[in-house]
């Protein structure tokens, strides 16, 4: 009788987001180590050290619905992938199908959005004929980012003899291109547009190399990894059924 009285009372004291979430692990929401690399405006580290952006809020919402709590940490891509392999990173919202992560991760079913990789150039420059038109060119890259084919094929093709220049921020990369310290900038559209608009720079010409879907990706080293994947997929479906936004713009 006492249990029947206490359980509804305890449920009524929970925040609404947790009261309607999937049953969490015993003892309250479990923390999950969530890795990301800086990708403004979707997910980025603010000046005060907090993780901000639409992507960060979506991750928090999905984990909260599934009965977990996100501990977000910014990492360069190489360390993030190693963390997924050794379990120090338990979850990542990123591109599925990476061969180097196939044996170390489980991919959730639902797509959260997509990212676009472009090859930027000054508006005064004609579009290159790919790939031969890039031969001998200077290409600007962002340090800590990873790329998929056909981008890696272009960068690694010895016949093109590309001169690669790296910089740490999208703003610096744009300035390098505008000052003609490189012929092309290989970068993702969302952070480039964020940096360009913030600096009040004119639009750039570009060619789109590919578009990639984004999914939640679970490290197999995470305890009960398969159960976690199922809970995250169910959380997506529950929120979607309630009409809540579960995809990035």
Automatic annotation (TrEMBL):
Keywords: Signal. PANTHER family: AMINO ACID ABC TRANSPORTER SUBSTRATE-BINDING PAAT FAMILY PROTEIN (PTHR35936:SF6), MEMBRANE-BOUND LYTIC MUREIN TRANSGLYCOSYLASE F (PTHR35936). Belongs to the bacterial solute-binding protein 3 family. Pfam families: SBP_bac_3. Residues 1-21 form the signal peptide. SUPFAM superfamilies: Periplasmic binding protein-like II. This is Bifunctional lytic transglycosylase/amino acid ABC transporter substrate-binding protein. The keyword Ion transport does not apply. Residues 36-246 form the Solute-binding protein family 3/N-terminal domain.
